[in-house]
Amino acid sequence: MKIAGIIAEYNPFHNGHLYQIEKTKKELNSDCIIAVMSGNFVMRGEPALFNKFLRAKSAVLNGVDLVIELPVPYALSSAEYFARGGVSILNSLNSVDFISFGAENDNLASLSSLADKLNSEKIKTKVKENQKEGIPVFSAIAREFSHEENEILKMSNNILAINYLKALKEINSPITPFPVKRKNTEYNDSLPKDNFISATGMREFLKEGKDISPFMPEAAYNLIKDISPVFEEEFDKAISYILRIKSPDELIKYPDVSEGLENLMAKAVREAFTVKEIAGFIKSKRYAYTRIKRILFNILLDIPKNEREKKPGYARVLGFSERGKELMAYLNKRSEIPIITNPTRSHYDLYPGLSLDLKASDIYSIICGKKGGNLNKILL
User: Fold this and answer.
1) Beta strand ranges found along the chain (DSSP E)
2) Does residue 132 carry a pLDDT above 80?
3) Residue 44 · residue 290 · CB < 8 Å
């Protein structure tokens, strides 16, 4: 059985995602596609627009055979940890032959060379030294690369692609990388081209109440057409509250909070009342806006500082096709981590990360109500 893996958010599922799945199947002649997908919170430091089970079903209806949840400590993190978590799960299944990922530059040799550089101890040391000068991590990295290399590193999907390659190299994974060049739009483009639009553009269209159906496969659109999307504003009061009841000493215990940032957050929440305002108040050359938002949601969900440093110890299933049923039976014989379809109390006790996923889903449901799709089980 030839299996390809994809790490994604599908927030929401659009024509670009379908293009990647179809190209992966065709070019690799793969029998099955496994997607490791963010749950109810995503890498941008936001709630997902739609519930994870709805998004998983969108993927299954459009060619994915098995959707596994990327645990929230990795999903609500930087590209490095996002990639590391997803690659670790795919590798631990002991069955995945390829990993397919989108990139603005699909030259595997160039991407792999940059991954090697970023993995070198010399570059890591230099980047840390640069960061001590109070500059953001991207600027700290940029100093160590040529103009041509930095042009590649500027692109969001290239950055993720390089981090996938880094993660594969770090664990000496046998999985073969397969880059897919983005079709028609860049990650942050807000305007559509033909029937393709970026995830950023989709979010803007949804906020403005515009029709997104031309940019989605029909089956995916029909799932969400009557459901109100969830935006970060729904969480303004909850985050303002949680910051006000925690001391700076408590705030420093969360991921990415360091170097006095806890004091800035304690001050910001006295002068700002929304996620956007709080993040805007703290944002600086050193602290990027998206990083601040991720921190705020990590605090809300009470995610421990070191949880994302651990190797994911389970694969939580969010959706599967008929072929996916056969695939799960195949994986159960080979995987070094358990494939969990219906978590029990013992699972939550055994895997702290799974308890964090449950907490994240509970908070999402409590705050959003029926927005985003009020679901807590696999859709068949």
Assistant:
1) 3-8, 32-38, 41-42, 46-47, 66-70, 98-103, 176-181, 315-320, 339-340
2) no
3) yes
